[in-house]
Structure formats: structure tokens, C-alpha cells
């Protein structure tokens, strides 16, 4: 997605202002009452820690481990979430049977799944993938349901009048109509997968950005904590933008309304 220069400049200025505030607050140990920056590392300290992580040779191992866990959980959530969303959105019986237990599970935070994940899965790797899966599942599921329910009934009736069967209606009417909402759910789900990563990698492991961030916290390497946080933020933002871009390529008929 190409950003016009007129919009790119204020975005860059916004980031620079945030960095300047961070530098001033951390270097001068500002105490703002409810919030204190006495122990917050400066941007320069974080940059030095980032270079130290790169020089250690462990960055690629951390990235590879985390990307594998996030994308494995996300792909499983994509398949199951869209399938359940289509069923619930199209069938009152499926809605009555499936939605109540899913709604009970939905508010449970990722950290609460850790003990059960350890008990359910034979390896810590599968447990970590499961935690990222739970983070992505519900945004994908609910947006799919919303998209399916939002399809104009007149389009379905028109397809039936032309002799379309259930399969044709699903593939040529329901899915194209629900696709924009599904893509939104996929983008949100990808972000929440990264959100759950630190929780997932608390279980076990020697590598991963979440594990690196948690380990840095336990040994009080504050600059390394921020490096891990920023890596998760950048990777989460980049992967969500990738999902939106791919979604735009697969839905050329849908163009969001422009902003004034």
C-alpha cells in the first residue's frame, strides 16, 4: 500500500515527536505523577541493545522460532475460524449449538490457557502454537459471522431464482460478499497472535521474541525488554499489513470509501 507524500510527512513527524518525547522523558527521568520514566531506557540505549542482539547471532533464531509459532497458529485459526463462521452465519442450528460455548471461551485471556495447554499437548512447541491460535481464532470467527450475516438476502434469492445450488451460492455469493469482513478479521487475528506471543513463549523454549522479552524482564535488562516489544510491534504491524494487501488483491471488487 503506497502512502502519498502529503500523508507520509505527518506520519513521519508523528513518529519523530514520539521519539523526542521518549528521549527527553527517559534522559531527564521525568516523574509525571501516575507515570514515571526514572527506569525507562532511552532510545539510544535501546538501539545499542538492538545492535547487541544482532551481533550475538541469536536474532535470526528468535525470529524464526516466533514466526513459525505465530503463522502455524494463525493458519489453523484461519481454517477453523472461517469454517465455523460460515456455518454459524448460514445456519440457525449451528449458531445455537456452536456459538454459546465459543462465547464462553472467547473472554478467557491467553495467559489463563497456559496450564491447560501444558496438560493437553505432548510438547511445549504445540502448546505455544495453541496459545497463538486462541488469539487469532475469535477475531476471524466473529468477523466471518458478521460478514456472512451482512450479505444482502436479495443476492441469495436472485442466485436461487437462476438455479444456483448451495455450493454455487456459497462460493459465488456468500464468500465474495463476506470477504471484506473476513479479511478484516484476518488482519486483527494476525495482530492478536503476536499479542499472545509473549504469553505463549512463557511456557518453555530457548528462542523466540516473546521468550527473549520475558527473559530480559526476569534479569532486568530494561533496554532489551523494549527491543523485544518493538520487534513484536513491527512484526505484528507488518504481517497485518501483508494480510490486508493480499486481501485487497483477492477482492478487487471491494474498495473502501476514501476519507475526507
Automatic annotation (TrEMBL):
Matches recorded under CDD domains: TM_PBP2
Gene3D superfamilies registered for this protein in UniProt: MetI-like
Keyword terms: Cell membrane, Membrane, Signal, Transmembrane, Transmembrane helix, Transport
Location within or outside the cell: Cell membrane
Signal sequence region: 1-28
InterPro entries from the UniProt entry: MetI-like, MetI-like_sf
SUPFAM superfamilies assigned: MetI-like
Domain of life: Bacteria
Membrane topology field: Multi-pass membrane protein
TM region(s), chain numbering: 70-89, 101-121, 127-148, 169-195, 222-243
PROSITE patterns: ABC_TM1 (PS50928)
Keyword Transport annotated: yes
Recorded GO CC terms: plasma membrane
Gene Ontology annotations of biological process type: alkanesulfonate transmembrane transport
Entry keyword Cell membrane: yes
ABC transmembrane type-1 domain segment(s): 63-243
Stated family: Belongs to the binding-protein-dependent transport system permease family.
PANTHER family in UniProt: ABC TRANSPORTER PERMEASE PROTEIN MJ0413-RELATED (PTHR30151:SF0), ALKANE SULFONATE ABC TRANSPORTER-RELATED, MEMBRANE SUBUNIT (PTHR30151)
Protein name in the entry: ABC transporter permease
Native source organism of the sequence: Pseudomonas vancouverensis
Amino acid at each position: 500500500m503506497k502512502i502519498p507524500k502529503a500523508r507520509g510527512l505527518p506520519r513521519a513527524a508523528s513518529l519523530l515527536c514520539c521519539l523526542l518525547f521518549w528521549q527527553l522523558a527517559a534522559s531527564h527521568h521525568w516523574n509525571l505523577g501516575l507515570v514515571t520514566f526514572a527506569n525507562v531506557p532511552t532510545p539510544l540505549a535501546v538501539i545499542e541493545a538492538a545492535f547487541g542482539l544482532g551481533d550475538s547471532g541469536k536474532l535470526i533464531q528468535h525470529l524464526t522460532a516466533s514466526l513459525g509459532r505465530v503463522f502455524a497458529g494463525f493458519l489453523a485459526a484461519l481454517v477453523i475460524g472461517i469454517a465455523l463462521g460460515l456455518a454459524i452465519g448460514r445456519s440457525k442450528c449451528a449458531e445455537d449449538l456452536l456459538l454459546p460455548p465459543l462465547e464462553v471461551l472467547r473472554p478467557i485471556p491467553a495467559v489463563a490457557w497456559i496450564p491447560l495447554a501444558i496438560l493437553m499437548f505432548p510438547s511445549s512447541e504445540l502448546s505455544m502454537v495453541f496459545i497463538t491460535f486462541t488469539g487469532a481464532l475469535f477475531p476471524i470467527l466473529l468477523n466471518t459471522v458478521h460478514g456472512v450475516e451482512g450479505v444482502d438476502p436479495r443476492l441469495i434469492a436472485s442466485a436461487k431464482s437462476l438455479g444456483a445450488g448451495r455450493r454455487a451460492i456459497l462460493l459465488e455469493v456468500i464468500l465474495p460478499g463476506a470477504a471484506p469482513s473476513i479479511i478484516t478479521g484476518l488482519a486483527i487475528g494476525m495482530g492478536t497472535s503476536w499479542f499472545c506471543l509473549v504469553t505463549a513463549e512463557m511456557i518453555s523454549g530457548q528462542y523466540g521474541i516473546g521468550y527473549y522479552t520475558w527473559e530480559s524482564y526476569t534479569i532486568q535488562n530494561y533496554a532489551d525488554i523494549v527491543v523485544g516489544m518493538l520487534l513484536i510491534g513491527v512484526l505484528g504491524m507488518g504481517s497485518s499489513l501483508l494480510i490486508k494487501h493480499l486481501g485487497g488483491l483477492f477482492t478487487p471488487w471491494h474498495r473502501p470509501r476514501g476519507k475526507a
